[in-house]
Amino acid sequence: MNNTVDAGLVFLLNGPKLLVDLSSGVPGIPDTSVAELLGLSLADGYRLGSIDGADCHALTVAGESEPPPGMAYLGLRKLFGTLNDTRYEMAVRALAILNWDRTCRFCSACGAPLGRHETILAKVCEACGFTMFPRISPAVIVLVERQEKVLLARASRFAENLYSVLAGFVEPGETLEETVLREVREEVGVEVSDIRYFGSQPWPYPDSLMIGFTASWAAGEIAADNDEITDARWFTVDNLPKIPDKLSISRSLIDWFIDKHRKER
Ligand SMILES: [Zn+2]
Predict the structure, then answer these.
(1) Could you tell me the residue range of the domain that residue 159 belongs to?
(2) pTM above 0.90, yes or no
(3) 6, 42, 46, 159: least surrounded by Cβ within 10 Å?
Protein backbone atom coordinates (compact mmCIF):
# COMPACT_ATOMS: atom_id res chain seq x y z
CA MET A 1 0.00 0.00 0.00
CA ASN A 2 1.11 3.53 -0.69
CA ASN A 3 1.04 5.55 2.51
CA THR A 4 1.06 8.92 0.73
CA VAL A 5 -2.47 8.23 -0.55
CA ASP A 6 -3.78 8.46 3.00
CA ALA A 7 -1.36 11.08 4.27
CA GLY A 8 -2.31 13.96 1.99
CA LEU A 9 -0.14 16.99 1.32
CA VAL A 10 -0.18 20.40 2.96
CA PHE A 11 0.68 23.53 0.98
CA LEU A 12 1.35 25.78 3.91
CA LEU A 13 1.98 29.43 3.17
CA ASN A 14 3.61 32.03 5.34
CA GLY A 15 2.89 35.19 3.37
CA PRO A 16 4.23 34.40 -0.13
CA LYS A 17 6.58 31.70 1.21
CA LEU A 18 5.85 27.98 1.06
CA LEU A 19 6.82 25.49 3.76
CA VAL A 20 9.03 22.82 2.19
CA ASP A 21 10.54 19.68 3.65
CA LEU A 22 14.29 19.63 2.96
CA SER A 23 15.08 16.34 4.71
CA SER A 24 15.52 14.40 1.44
CA GLY A 25 17.88 17.00 -0.06
CA VAL A 26 15.35 18.37 -2.57
CA PRO A 27 12.37 20.50 -1.52
CA GLY A 28 9.26 18.39 -0.91
CA ILE A 29 5.71 19.13 0.24
CA PRO A 30 5.07 18.07 3.87
CA ASP A 31 2.25 15.66 4.70
CA THR A 32 -0.76 16.45 6.89
CA SER A 33 1.09 15.73 10.14
CA VAL A 34 2.73 19.14 9.77
CA ALA A 35 -0.56 20.85 10.63
CA GLU A 36 -0.56 19.33 14.10
CA LEU A 37 3.14 20.13 14.57
CA LEU A 38 2.33 23.80 14.02
CA GLY A 39 -0.93 23.74 16.02
CA LEU A 40 -3.10 24.28 12.93
CA SER A 41 -6.31 22.61 11.79
CA LEU A 42 -6.83 21.44 8.20
CA ALA A 43 -10.48 22.49 8.58
CA ASP A 44 -9.36 26.14 8.65
CA GLY A 45 -7.75 25.78 5.23
CA TYR A 46 -8.99 24.85 1.76
CA ARG A 47 -9.10 21.59 -0.18
CA LEU A 48 -7.16 22.15 -3.40
CA GLY A 49 -7.69 18.88 -5.24
CA SER A 50 -5.39 15.87 -5.35
CA ILE A 51 -2.02 14.76 -6.69
CA ASP A 52 -1.61 11.04 -7.42
CA GLY A 53 -4.55 10.28 -5.13
CA ALA A 54 -3.22 12.38 -2.23
CA ASP A 55 -5.59 15.10 -1.03
CA CYS A 56 -3.96 18.53 -1.12
CA HIS A 57 -4.74 21.22 1.44
CA ALA A 58 -3.93 24.93 1.58
CA LEU A 59 -3.21 26.43 5.00
CA THR A 60 -1.90 29.76 6.24
CA VAL A 61 0.48 30.23 9.13
CA ALA A 62 1.27 33.48 10.91
CA GLY A 63 4.40 35.40 9.94
CA GLU A 64 6.45 34.71 13.07
CA SER A 65 6.02 30.91 12.96
CA GLU A 66 9.27 28.88 13.12
CA PRO A 67 9.42 26.05 10.57
CA PRO A 68 9.57 22.49 12.02
CA PRO A 69 13.03 20.83 12.04
CA GLY A 70 14.29 19.94 8.56
CA MET A 71 11.84 22.34 6.93
CA ALA A 72 12.03 25.93 5.66
CA TYR A 73 9.84 28.69 4.28
CA LEU A 74 11.00 29.42 0.73
CA GLY A 75 9.71 31.98 -1.77
CA LEU A 76 7.42 30.39 -4.33
CA ARG A 77 9.21 32.01 -7.26
CA LYS A 78 12.50 30.50 -6.11
CA LEU A 79 10.94 27.04 -6.08
CA PHE A 80 10.12 27.15 -9.80
CA GLY A 81 12.04 24.35 -11.50
CA THR A 82 12.92 22.84 -8.11
CA LEU A 83 9.51 21.54 -7.12
CA ASN A 84 8.04 19.27 -9.79
CA ASP A 85 5.50 20.95 -12.11
CA THR A 86 2.38 19.41 -10.58
CA ARG A 87 3.36 20.46 -7.07
CA TYR A 88 4.44 23.89 -8.21
CA GLU A 89 1.08 24.46 -9.91
CA MET A 90 -0.74 23.31 -6.79
CA ALA A 91 1.36 25.72 -4.69
CA VAL A 92 0.38 28.56 -7.05
CA ARG A 93 -3.28 27.56 -6.59
CA ALA A 94 -2.81 27.54 -2.82
CA LEU A 95 -1.28 31.02 -2.83
CA ALA A 96 -4.05 32.40 -5.07
CA ILE A 97 -6.82 30.97 -2.87
CA LEU A 98 -5.21 32.05 0.39
CA ASN A 99 -4.58 35.59 -0.97
CA TRP A 100 -8.29 35.76 -1.75
CA ASP A 101 -9.30 34.30 1.62
CA ARG A 102 -7.20 36.90 3.44
CA THR A 103 -8.43 39.90 1.45
CA CYS A 104 -12.11 39.01 0.92
CA ARG A 105 -13.70 39.04 4.36
CA PHE A 106 -16.67 41.39 4.17
CA CYS A 107 -19.59 41.68 1.78
CA SER A 108 -18.96 44.32 -0.87
CA ALA A 109 -22.73 44.95 -1.12
CA CYS A 110 -23.65 45.48 2.55
CA GLY A 111 -20.43 45.25 4.60
CA ALA A 112 -21.47 42.29 6.76
CA PRO A 113 -18.98 39.46 7.47
CA LEU A 114 -18.72 36.68 4.86
CA GLY A 115 -18.96 32.94 5.54
CA ARG A 116 -17.73 30.13 3.35
CA HIS A 117 -20.04 28.65 0.75
CA GLU A 118 -20.83 25.05 1.65
CA THR A 119 -20.16 23.42 -1.70
CA ILE A 120 -18.30 25.75 -4.06
CA LEU A 121 -15.18 27.89 -3.79
CA ALA A 122 -16.91 31.12 -2.83
CA LYS A 123 -18.02 33.15 0.17
CA VAL A 124 -21.57 34.12 1.05
CA CYS A 125 -22.82 37.14 2.97
CA GLU A 126 -24.57 36.07 6.16
CA ALA A 127 -26.80 39.15 6.04
CA CYS A 128 -27.87 39.65 2.42
CA GLY A 129 -26.90 36.39 0.70
CA PHE A 130 -24.53 38.04 -1.83
CA THR A 131 -22.03 35.51 -3.22
CA MET A 132 -18.41 36.48 -3.76
CA PHE A 133 -16.14 34.31 -5.89
CA PRO A 134 -12.33 34.36 -5.78
CA ARG A 135 -11.14 37.45 -7.60
CA ILE A 136 -9.12 36.76 -10.74
CA SER A 137 -7.73 39.75 -12.61
CA PRO A 138 -7.10 38.98 -16.29
CA ALA A 139 -4.16 40.69 -17.97
CA VAL A 140 -2.88 40.29 -21.51
CA ILE A 141 0.79 39.87 -22.27
CA VAL A 142 1.90 40.27 -25.86
CA LEU A 143 4.99 39.71 -27.94
CA VAL A 144 5.06 42.04 -30.95
CA GLU A 145 7.17 41.02 -33.95
CA ARG A 146 8.38 43.06 -36.91
CA GLN A 147 10.02 40.64 -39.33
CA GLU A 148 13.11 39.32 -37.50
CA LYS A 149 12.79 41.77 -34.60
CA VAL A 150 10.88 41.70 -31.33
CA LEU A 151 9.55 44.66 -29.36
CA LEU A 152 10.82 44.63 -25.78
CA ALA A 153 10.27 47.35 -23.22
CA ARG A 154 11.58 48.51 -19.89
CA ALA A 155 8.83 49.20 -17.37
CA SER A 156 9.49 51.64 -14.55
CA ARG A 157 8.72 48.86 -12.03
CA PHE A 158 11.35 46.45 -13.49
CA ALA A 159 14.73 45.60 -12.00
CA GLU A 160 17.52 47.58 -13.62
CA ASN A 161 18.24 46.85 -17.31
CA LEU A 162 15.48 44.25 -17.60
CA TYR A 163 13.39 44.30 -20.78
CA SER A 164 10.25 42.29 -21.45
CA VAL A 165 7.14 42.01 -23.59
CA LEU A 166 4.20 44.38 -23.01
CA ALA A 167 1.40 43.60 -20.58
CA GLY A 168 -1.72 45.23 -19.18
CA PHE A 169 -4.96 44.54 -17.36
CA VAL A 170 -8.20 43.86 -19.20
CA GLU A 171 -10.81 46.57 -18.69
CA PRO A 172 -14.54 45.85 -18.25
CA GLY A 173 -16.30 45.35 -21.59
CA GLU A 174 -13.13 44.66 -23.57
CA THR A 175 -12.32 41.58 -25.59
CA LEU A 176 -8.80 40.29 -25.01
CA GLU A 177 -7.88 41.34 -28.56
CA GLU A 178 -9.07 44.89 -27.82
CA THR A 179 -6.91 44.95 -24.69
CA VAL A 180 -3.89 43.92 -26.77
CA LEU A 181 -4.54 46.71 -29.29
CA ARG A 182 -5.11 49.33 -26.58
CA GLU A 183 -2.15 48.39 -24.39
CA VAL A 184 0.35 48.33 -27.24
CA ARG A 185 -0.99 51.63 -28.56
CA GLU A 186 -0.96 53.30 -25.11
CA GLU A 187 2.44 52.04 -24.00
CA VAL A 188 4.52 52.35 -27.17
CA GLY A 189 2.34 54.04 -29.83
CA VAL A 190 2.41 51.08 -32.22
CA GLU A 191 -0.50 49.43 -34.09
CA VAL A 192 -0.57 45.63 -34.34
CA SER A 193 -2.44 42.97 -36.32
CA ASP A 194 -2.53 39.18 -36.59
CA ILE A 195 -3.17 38.73 -32.84
CA ARG A 196 -2.85 35.05 -31.92
CA TYR A 197 -3.38 33.24 -28.64
CA PHE A 198 -0.17 31.80 -27.19
CA GLY A 199 -1.02 30.38 -23.74
CA SER A 200 -1.88 31.47 -20.21
CA GLN A 201 -0.43 31.44 -16.72
CA PRO A 202 -1.97 32.02 -13.28
CA TRP A 203 0.10 34.71 -11.57
CA PRO A 204 -0.98 34.94 -7.91
CA TYR A 205 0.84 38.20 -7.07
CA PRO A 206 -1.82 38.74 -5.91
CA ASP A 207 -4.55 37.50 -8.28
CA SER A 208 -3.68 37.81 -11.97
CA LEU A 209 -4.27 35.48 -14.86
CA MET A 210 -1.79 36.29 -17.62
CA ILE A 211 -3.18 35.58 -21.11
CA GLY A 212 -0.38 35.50 -23.68
CA PHE A 213 -0.56 36.55 -27.33
CA THR A 214 1.72 37.11 -30.27
CA ALA A 215 1.06 39.95 -32.72
CA SER A 216 2.65 41.54 -35.78
CA TRP A 217 3.64 45.16 -36.16
CA ALA A 218 1.22 46.94 -38.49
CA ALA A 219 2.03 50.66 -38.27
CA GLY A 220 3.74 53.36 -36.22
CA GLU A 221 7.17 53.94 -34.75
CA ILE A 222 7.96 53.25 -31.10
CA ALA A 223 7.16 56.11 -28.73
CA ALA A 224 7.39 54.94 -25.12
CA ASP A 225 4.72 56.53 -22.90
CA ASN A 226 7.45 57.49 -20.36
CA ASP A 227 5.02 56.63 -17.59
CA GLU A 228 4.72 52.85 -17.28
CA ILE A 229 7.30 52.31 -20.03
CA THR A 230 10.61 54.14 -19.85
CA ASP A 231 12.22 52.63 -22.96
CA ALA A 232 11.17 50.29 -25.77
CA ARG A 233 13.11 49.02 -28.77
CA TRP A 234 13.23 46.41 -31.52
CA PHE A 235 15.73 43.64 -30.80
CA THR A 236 17.03 40.76 -32.91
CA VAL A 237 17.90 37.39 -31.33
CA ASP A 238 21.58 38.37 -31.57
CA ASN A 239 21.34 41.52 -29.48
CA LEU A 240 18.78 40.70 -26.79
CA PRO A 241 18.93 42.66 -23.52
CA LYS A 242 18.51 41.16 -20.06
CA ILE A 243 15.17 39.26 -20.15
CA PRO A 244 12.93 37.72 -17.42
CA ASP A 245 13.64 34.40 -15.68
CA LYS A 246 12.31 31.07 -16.99
CA LEU A 247 9.43 31.18 -14.51
CA SER A 248 7.14 33.53 -16.40
CA ILE A 249 5.03 33.42 -19.54
CA SER A 250 6.87 36.58 -20.69
CA ARG A 251 10.01 34.45 -20.91
CA SER A 252 8.12 31.64 -22.67
CA LEU A 253 7.00 34.15 -25.31
CA ILE A 254 10.55 35.46 -25.78
CA ASP A 255 11.92 31.90 -25.90
CA TRP A 256 9.34 31.10 -28.61
CA PHE A 257 10.67 34.03 -30.66
CA ILE A 258 14.31 33.05 -30.08
CA ASP A 259 13.61 29.46 -31.05
CA LYS A 260 11.81 30.45 -34.25
CA HIS A 261 14.57 32.78 -35.44
CA ARG A 262 17.46 30.51 -34.51
CA LYS A 263 15.82 27.73 -36.54
CA GLU A 264 15.47 30.00 -39.54
CA ARG A 265 19.22 30.35 -39.83
ZN1 LIG B 1 -24.17 41.43 2.21
Answers:
(1) 137-263
(2) no
(3) 159
